[in-house]
Amino acid sequence: MAGPRFYFSLRSPYSWLAYRRLLGEYRDIAEQVEWVPFWEPDEASSAMLEQRRAKFPYSAMSRAKHLYVLQDVGRLCKREGLALRWPIDRAPVWEVPHLAYLVALRHGCGPGYIAAAYRARWEQGRDICDRETVADIARELGFDPGAAAGAGDDPELRLQGAAILEQICTDGVFGVPFFVHARSRFWGLDRLDEFAAHLRERAAPAPAMPVSVGAAVGLGVGSDDGHAGGCG
């Protein structure tokens, strides 16, 4: 069974807020989930997905929803006491920052890269699809800025990215933040609490069951060789 996964996007303000809550309130959950980047594919990535017979489960938001998000995120940030600077995306190619994350992972800088990219986008209002911004983040973290800035041109990283996008399709991730464990799905910042409770509940040891003398007679390897829940 695949482990729990947190689909995050460097583009999404809700994903940024979920990231902050994970590290601030659910450090144990943050450490046990697989962090999987989510981004809207460009033309090249879309073609690779098509070759894999996968259809990306995401559609662009309407203008009305976009205006709502601006208002809603502003409210949430005010409540949390966060200084928000809305970035301006100029012809964004989301492979640029998200494939650069894969470079950061190779250098053991994955968490630091996410933190720096979110800070650049949502606290400094920078364009993280600008290759120079990505290069600056790599320099700050001490790994190859050229490899980070050019991640979208690397054929191997493109293939790795296509595999991630295919996993997104398989898991039915239609937005972020999105949390997956086995067959359970949780979408949105307001489902983080439920996801955390879900994982903690499954990690907790089962309570000891009192066994009567009569019932103990029939116990043995052959009585219930199923899963730990005992209901096979």
UniProtKB/TrEMBL annotation:
Keywords: Isomerase. It is an enzyme of class 5 (isomerase). The active site is at S12 (nucleophile). One of its GO terms (molecular function) is oxidoreductase activity. InterPro entries: DSBA-like_thioredoxin_dom, GST_Kappa/NadH, HCCAis_GSTk, Thioredoxin-like_sf. Its EC number is 5.99.1.4. Residues 6-199 form the DSBA-like thioredoxin domain. It catalyses: 2-hydroxychromene-2-carboxylate = (3E)-4-(2-hydroxyphenyl)-2-oxobut-3-enoate. Belongs to the GST superfamily. NadH family. This is 2-hydroxychromene-2-carboxylate isomerase. The lineage of its organism: Bacteria, Bacillati, Actinomycetota, Actinomycetes, Micromonosporales.
